[in-house]
Each structure stands twice: as structure tokens, then as C-alpha cells.
């Protein structure tokens, strides 16, 4: 039978392994029952869960060029007719500005090639490449 699980113990006792004694998990006061049991956590509840920790995060990458700098998404052949757009939109603002053209690339789209490119992108996002 299929049941939801937030942790699976392999070759270890449930009472000691689930609380972290024999598995290397953080020591726990109790097991988090997960969202199925009404809890907000699916991990072992530790002293760190009882402290309100605030974190400050600084940007490490420029969000405006994030997609343009990623070679996984560098497929200019998906931009449609190069005469219409000239280049792919690399941000939502560029896309909105360029998307009001009056012609369409539907006539020149190779569906098989497009399907291969989509499959390649999905595989790259899943880490297969």
C-alpha cells in the first residue's frame, strides 16, 4: 500500500534511528509527524525549532541576467523569426516590450525540433545532463 512518508529508515531501528541516535540526524525531542499529522515539520524536532532565528540573505547573482547567463536556457532558435525580434527576451520586461509584434513564428516552427529542445531542457533541469 502507498503511504506518505517524510523519512525512511534503512537498516536501523525505528526508535533510535528516527530520533537521530543511530542515523546521524540531529538529536530530537520528538519525531515530527509531518503535515499529514498536523505538524509544521517533517523532520526531527530539535532545540533549534524552539528558537526564533532571523536570517539576512544577500543576493549572490544578478537577477536581471540570471536566465541570460544560464547556458541551459540559451536557445535563440526558440525566439521565433530572427527578423521579428532580433534576440530572445532575457527578462519579463524585455518579453513584454518585444511581444507586441504583429507577425508570428508559427509558420516556421519545427514541432519535432521544439519537442527535442523542451525534452533537453526538462532533462537538464532534472539533472540528467
From TrEMBL:
Query: What InterPro entries does the record point to?
Result: Ald_DH_C (IPR016163), Ald_DH_N (IPR016162)
Coiled-coil intervals in this record? none
One Gene Ontology term of the molecular function aspect = oxidoreductase activity, acting on the aldehyde or oxo group of donors, NAD or NADP as acceptor
Name the source's superkingdom. Answer: Bacteria
The protein's name is Acetaldehyde dehydrogenase (Acetylating)
What organism does the record attribute this protein to? Clostridium autoethanogenum
> Taxonomic classification, please?
Bacteria, Bacillati, Bacillota, Clostridia, Eubacteriales
